[in-house]
Amino acid sequence: MTEIEIQISVEEGPWADEEALLSLSERVIGAAARHLVREEGQPFPAAPPELSLVFTDDASIRAVNAEWRGQDKPTNVLSFPAFPVEPGDMPGPMLGDIIMAHETLAREAVELGKPFDDHLTHLLVHGFLHLFGYDHMETDEAEEMEGLETRILSELGLSDPYGDDPV
């Protein structure tokens, strides 16, 4: 089973309404979860795990980034796993939190020449993979995570975000 209970909170910023964000998030997170189960052999809990998505602005994410990561600057996405997991481990009943910052995402989308929703889709997948223990601090970890992102985004009809073609 790859069903996930998604809780949405729009805190700050000019985000779409919660219904539109939930619809996009369910499609993207659902595709990522199915890919992890089908292609990566990722175990999944029998009961649907919970995921919290927070949509906010640069000021809010900057405060969280400073407090939890010691980096006093805004960022595009932050992920906070509810439980420590390694890639391939069974996730817990609560996957964790993903926080997204509108201004940073919008600025990056313009810089990359991508539609905002395509960039948001990429970063939802990116943040979701962090909750499953995937990381990009070391080269081999980055290659594994980027490969997963690329395959999941391909299933969603988007191009490789790390290649020459825009997502």
UniProtKB/TrEMBL annotation:
Whether Zinc counts among this entry's keywords is yes
Assigned keywords, A-Z: Cytoplasm, Endonuclease, Hydrolase, Metal-binding, Nuclease, Ribosome biogenesis, rRNA processing, Zinc
Biological process, per Gene Ontology? rRNA processing
Look up the domain of life of the source: Bacteria
Amino-acid positions noted as binding Zn(2+) in the UniProt annotation, renumbered to this chain: 126, 130, 136
Please name the InterPro entries in this protein's record.
MetalPrtase_cat_dom_sf_prd, YbeY, YbeY_CS
Give the chief site where it resides.
cytoplasm
Record-listed E.C. numbers? 3.1.-.-
GO (cellular component) term, any one: cytoplasm
Gene Ontology molecular function, alphabetical? metalloendopeptidase activity; RNA endonuclease activity; zinc ion binding
Q: What cofactor does this chain's UniProt record say it requires?
A: Zn(2+)
Entry cofactor note text?
Binds 1 zinc ion.
Q: Where in the cell is it found?
A: Cytoplasm
Which Pfam families does UniProt cross-reference here? YbeY
Q: Name the top EC class.
A: hydrolase
Tell me which HAMAP family the record gives: Endoribonucl_YbeY
Which PANTHER family does this one have? Answer: ENDORIBONUCLEASE YBEY, CHLOROPLASTIC
Family the entry assigns:
Belongs to the endoribonuclease YbeY family.
Instruction: Tell me, in a sentence or two, what this protein's role is.
Output: Single strand-specific metallo-endoribonuclease involved in late-stage 70S ribosome quality control and in maturation of the 3' terminus of the 16S rRNA.
Q: What is the official name of this protein in its record?
A: Endoribonuclease YbeY
Q: What is the native source organism of this protein?
A: Rhizobium subbaraonis
**Gene that encodes it:** ybeY
